[in-house]
Amino acid sequence: MHISRPSLGCTFVLLTIPALVVLGLGYYSLILDHENMPYCHKAALMAVLDWFEVQKTDVLPNVQGRSVDSLAELRNDLGDQPWEVTYRYVPGLQKDDPGDLVLMYMVEPTRYIFHNNPQTIFSQKKWMIVPLDFTGQVGSAIGRWDGREVPLWGECSERVSLDEFQTRLKKTLDFLRTHERPNWQTVVAEHETFLESISENKN
């Protein structure tokens, strides 16, 4: 009885397929950084716009100046993700305040650019902020926000260096303090504590 051996071509295919699978899994698990994934900021955008419409106000949620409690006012429109863990919300802002003020920011830097597209471990980590003027970007093309370059159409956020993040958040807190927005002392205390913590980690 003659048993035929697999051809060289068949052997190559049989060996190549598992190798490609292993390489793909290795790339996904070891090369792509899945940590600190941002959420879809369009959800935050729609939550804010809905707040303005339903509450008939230009004042954003501010519950005793506390980030978590204030963000909870938008919770029904934000989906199931734990926004209060991944983000800090800055209470006290109003619709017509300067657009580059920080409404929300991620508590850790991230390599992500798009919220659902991890980058490689060789990509630079940056801080993700949601500026107040993201509400004016619905349907806009890549251009500029208040003199700042729009990083990515549709993401409703900016990726900035640590220095710029610190500068922008300090500017926001100074604005709230200067304009004596309700509960500004609590807001400033909470977010200045965060700024101090990342400055210590930097050193």
Brief characterization of the structure:
By secondary structure, the chain is of the alpha+beta class.
Describe what you observe in this structure.
- This protein is an alpha+beta fold.
- The protein has 2 domains: 7-33; 37-202, no CATH class.
- It is 42% helix and 12% strand.
- It has helices spanning 8-31, 41-55, 67-72, 83-86, 162-178, 184-202, and strands at residues 32-33, 87-89, 102-106, 119-120, 127-131, 144-145, 148-149, 158-160.
- The strands form 3 sheets. A 4-stranded antiparallel β-sheet has the order 2-3-5-8.
- Helix 5 runs antiparallel to helix 6 (184-202).
- The longest helix is centred in the N-terminal third of the chain and has 24 residues, at 8-31.
- It is globular.
- Mean pLDDT is 81; it is low at 138-144.
The separation of the N and C termini measures: 76 Å
How many structural domains can be distinguished in the coordinates? 2
Proportion of beta-strand residues: 5-15%
- Round the mean pLDDT to the nearest integer and report it: 81
Outline type:
globular
- Rounded to the nearest angstrom, the radius of gyration is 23 Å
Report the oligomer. Answer: single chain
Q: What is the number of E strands?
A: 8
| Helix and strand pattern | HEHHHEEEEEEEHH
Sheet with most strands: 4 strands, antiparallel
The count of helical stretches stands at 6
| Main sheet strand line-up | 2-3-5-8
Question: Which structural class is indicated by helix and strand composition?
Answer: alpha+beta
Helix content: 40-55%
Low-confidence stretches: 138-144
